[in-house]
Amino acid sequence: MDSIRMEKFHAMKRYRKTKQFRPSLLHYFATLLFLALFLSSPLWLPRACSCLLSLAAISGTKCLVLLCNVVVVFLVRVSASKPSQPSPADIYEEYMNRKVSNELQDERKSKMRTEEEDDSEEEEEVISEIDKKAEDFIARINWQRRLEERRLLSYGYG
């Protein structure tokens, strides 16, 4: 696949992940409640089981069937309340926004590269000028030292 299709595929995948699971305060509360019930189950589970067994003995299997049906209805409603799939228009809009932002970033990077190249050329010119001045200075100092040596030799101090 070409890069555009891969980018579109990844955008759709990210969009689905963000839309699938958005926990709310109610979701956190329900999780906390079930965790508390689970951790406290040694306290209430034996009593609940004995109550269910006595209820089943009194009313027979009809009560258990009714209880199971209530659980099934609850599970069906929860599964039906899941969010629907995002529309292709939303996914395409997100993809285009990302593409435009990526192109803008590429343009900025290319501008920065050209500026850096210009700066590096200017730096090279400055460095070459400094090198030239340093060499001239060293040559002048060496010439002055030779000149002083000759004067000292000519006056007989050496």
List descriptors.
mainly alpha; 5 helices; elongated
Q: How would you describe what is shown here?
A:
- With 158 residues, the protein is mainly alpha-helical.
- Helix content is 89%, strand content 0%.
Helix content: over 70%
- Mean of residue pLDDT? 79
| Shape, per Cα inertia axes | elongated
Count all strands and give the number.
0
Number of helices: 5
Task: Describe the largest sheet.
Answer: none
Percentage of residues in strands:
under 5%
Gyration radius (Cα, Å) is 41 Å
Q: From N to C, what is the helix and strand string?
A: HHHHH
Give the class from helix and strand content and strand pairing.
mainly alpha
Q: Spans of 5+ residues with little confidence (pLDDT < 50)?
A: none
**Span from first to last CA?**
85 Å
Summary?
The chain has 158 residues and is mostly helical. The protein is built from five helices and no strands.
What's the topology here?
Layout: H1 3-20, H2 25-39, H3 41-59, H4 61-80, H5 88-155
Helix pairs in contact: 1-5, 3-4
